[in-house]
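Input chain follows. Return structure tokens only.
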Amino acid sequence: MRKSHLFGGLCFVTLCVTCLAYTPFFRPLENQTTESVAMAGEAFEYGATRLTAVGWESCPYCQKFKTEVIPPLQEEGYEVKYVDRSLWNGPRIRTGPTLFFFKGKVIVKVYQGFMTAEEVKEYLESPRLE
């Protein structure tokens, strides 16, 4: 009987440690600085200057965003790009596509899911036409 209590206790401790290890409160934000978090709300009211969409090949919405949304925005002069998840060095993504709106080098908005070109334009400053 003592062995079963010991085994149960060890299983419970292991479960607790595993849960704590995967809780976001105990992990640092990946590639985020205090500056980007502090300025995010303030900077976004003026509009983002560029967009990076992150996705992967087997995601149909990622591929649709890459082929149907990015090209028209680029033709209009918006600074937008698509990055495959395997090449992405920013914050962890779980949903495709994940859209990162930047003002300078600061992420001011993160959107998970598909957006049309018109919806994306609502968050971006108008492009500078030269």
